[in-house]
Design goal:
By secondary structure, the chain is of the alpha/beta class. It is 36% helix and 14% strand. This is D-3-phosphoglycerate dehydrogenase.
């Protein structure tokens, strides 16, 4: 280890070789690896000297005692930076980090192409009834070509909930490829900002009522938890589809089961769940009109490389005293700057 080096730790298996390659090439950075089987002595040793933690983004893929909690923070007195592997940071207690003067960054936008394409793929598969016909033909002999008639999506209306990195890319694809009308619900954007992305700013109820496809792309937080439930599903057209590649818990799964049973909507495409992965006997698995994936919308080879590069760039920029572009708790900046200065003798700019 180089004297006075900056110490970054991660948990194996790490999902991006690119991140490890880029940081490993720096002579002033020391990489420490833990595993899910690391004992308390090894974990304590690594935490005691760590300046940064590149943490897994999925709760289900990281053992709880290596989530960024108040307990972990108390064992890491020099910890300055927590960087999520993904666009979200479900394994990080951001409030505890802010209180401790720790910067939280995520790789927002790094998988926008992958997730937007996944949402679009679900739209096409649902409207053309690919999965329904595939399942039928594998189970039974003989099929009428008219029994599973689908719909064109050109010129239809898509309602996007959350016009961030993925939402804007989804809007671009829908408008450019299929000349769709785009409605957007995002209370943090103005009418002009939404119009700049070719969309119309509407309230959530109007979006649910007028859309042929509802696609959810907002983060999960206190404001969005259970934001879409029975009252919102009840507004949807009977031939409309509900799609989400955001986070489990934003939509009410039980209420979605009810509306699908009653055939009040045409179907759904679900990539995210309250419990991940969902059990194979989850009630939503029973519908042929529902397409399910295990939170893999953002998991492609290209997205993984891109996320790793962005994570490495952000980490090194922060460790070199710069301001990372994807900070998730900007209110911590002044406290973080003071802690960084005391640690390295440099004031971040």
């Amino acid at each position: 280890m180089v004297p006075n080096s900056k110490r970054v730790f991660y948990v194996e298996p790490h999902r991006s070789n690119r991140f490890l390659e880029v940081l490993g090439a720096r002579q002033d950075v020391t990489l420490d690896a833990l595993t899910h089987q690391s004992d308390k002595v090894e974990i304590s040793r690594v935490l005691a000297g760590a300046h940064a933690y590149q943490v897994g983004a999925s709760r289900q893929e990281l053992v709880p005692h290596l989530h960024v909690t108040q307990s972990l923070i108390e064992q890491a007195p020099h910890l300055l930076i927590v960087s999520s592997n993904g666009a979200g940071f479900d394994t990080v207690d951001a409030k505890a980090c802010t209180k401790a003067g720790i910067l939280v960054v995520a790789q927002t936008g790094g998988n926008r192409e992958a997730v937007a394409e996944h949402a679009l793929g679900m739209m096409l598969a649902l409207s053309k009834r690919f999965v329904e016909t595939d399942r039928y033909m594998r189970r039974q002999n003989g099929i009428s070509r008219n029994a599973f008639m689908g719909h064109d999506i050109i010129g239809k209306t898509i309602g996007i909930v959350g016009l961030g990195n993925v939402g804007t890319r989804t809007a671009e694809l829908c408008r450019g490829l299929f000349r769709m009308r785009v409605l957007a619900y995002d209370p943090y954007l103005t009418t002009a900002q939404i119009a700049a992305h070719g969309a119309e700013k509407v309230e959530l109820d109007q979006l649910m009522r007028e859309s042929d496809f509802v696609s959810v792309h907002c983060p999960y937080n206190e404001e969005t938890a259970n934001m879409i439930g029975a009252p919102q599903y009840a507004l949807m057209k009977p031939d409309a589809y509900f799609i989400t590649t955001a986070r489990g818990g934003i939509h009410d799964e039980a209420a979605l089961v009810d509306v699908l049973k009653a055939k009040k909507i045409a179907g759904a495409g679900l990539d995210v769940w309250v419990d991940e992965p969902p059990p194979h006997d989850h009630p939503l698995m029973a519908f042929d009109t529902v397409i399910v994936t295990p939170h893999t919308a953002g998991v492609t080879h290209e997205a993984r490389v891109n996320m790793g590069q962005i994570a490495a760039d952000q980490m090194l920029l922060a460790l070199d005293g710069g301001r990372a572009p994807r900070i998730q708790n900007p209110e911590v900046w002044s406290a973080y700057v003071e802690r960084f200065r005391k640690e390295f003798g440099v004031t971040p700019a």
